[in-house]
Write a structure and sequence with these properties.
It is built from 15 helices and 21 strands. By secondary structure, it is α/β, with parallel strands linked by helices. It is globular. The chain has two domains: 270 residues, Aldehyde Dehydrogenase, Chain A, domain 1 (3-Layer(aba) Sandwich), CATH 3.40.605; 187 residues, Aldehyde Dehydrogenase, Chain A, domain 2 (3-Layer(aba) Sandwich), CATH 3.40.309.10.
Length: 479
Amino acid sequence: MAQHYAQLSVKQFSDLKKIEVTAPFDQSVIATVDVADEKSVDSALQIAYQQFIDRSHWLSKTERITILNKAAQLMETQIDTLAIEAAREGGKPLIDSRVEVIRAIESIKLCADTLRHSAGQEIPMGINPASEEHLAFTTNEPIGVVVAVSAFNHPLNLIAHQVGPAIAAGCPVIVKPTQDTPLSCLRLVKIFYEAGLPQEWCQALLITDRELATRLVTDERVAFFSFIGSAQVGWMLRSKLAPGTRCALEHGGVAPVIIAADADLDKAIAAIAKGGFYHAGQVCVSVQRIFCQRQIVEEVTSKLAQIADRLIVGDPTLEDTDVGPLIRPKEIDRIDQWVKEAINEGATLITGGKKISESCYAPTILLNPARSSKISRQEVFGPVVVVYFYDDIDEAIHTANALPFAFQAAIFTNSLDLSLKAYKQLDASAVMVNDHTAFRVDWMPFAGLKQSGLGVGGIPYTFHDMQIEKMLVIKSTEL
């Protein structure tokens, strides 16, 4: 019998509906989970809000640091279990899921370190007649109740990036995992409880009704909204936030990579293959559009196809699997339709372009699809990369910048001047030189621009956004 996961809230309700969580690879039932209803949401919000407004309930910095460090220690004892279960429910291959678990542990440790080194600042006084006899400085306080809505593709580390900073900042947090991968979230929240976090400070609700989820997010008691998911949903929710609610939105991109003729192609192609086919392309900064100089396009596509064809696609819980399933079978049909449309509109199929099963799609490379094809204009979120050739670097940069999305970009070259040109002219929040667009460490800023998001992610930046800077001004004749 599949394991059942109860709703993680202070007040329990016995009449909640349940849903089945299935493995994307074979649709087998992994577990059942309680589904929050209206009374669950109202109760969670009221409890979280009461924790915040009664300052006698606030957790001290020492308590928060201790809880975060203890949670990281507990996670370290469960790496294999967390990785296998994340691979089962999310479809990311085990080798990559282990990396995700280790990243999540480091993320929680980073939350504690960020809090430890957080401080306010002195505001200059005594520098004109009006400020004589004054002293002013700031300290940091939690912003209020945080609601975090998360995505499926990194089911553990995304929760760590949303809930960890909230705990560090001293904010009560309600987290809504995606219906596809709620189990990693629930496991992590339970670890926080085991580490000593009072349940009132972190509640996890699985909500399947969009209207109810919208009510949670837009409630006037919510001070900060953290969202990771589709642009359509993110921007819609932002438009409905209560006055005063701050937010951070992380959507996706259609990440461009430029390859110059002077690049080390073997290293470049290996990195691009990882960045394009990692987690079956289901990453917001996956390599999607590759622009290479005309004289190397044949070599680039040939070497990239050789790697793509060697990748083992299948069961994500097996040690030798390189590429796992798409999160839902309907995504296979959508991606296949986009690829076929691109071919009908003039693209050349280099390799792939077919369903392997009802859940897996072959790593695919297309050459020179039309600029109007969906595959050229929208985030594919699947194991598909497209290659274009260019004669003029300015032409490539112009095309790379032509979409209403901007996140991370990359260039492969041995020329310092060309690297700096790309850095200056590419429309991106980060430009990688000689690495793929999906490179990330958890202390760096991570920000979607234009339709790709709002605000800056990364542990220290999220921690900062979940706090206010409060100033104390003292007037004294002794100053």
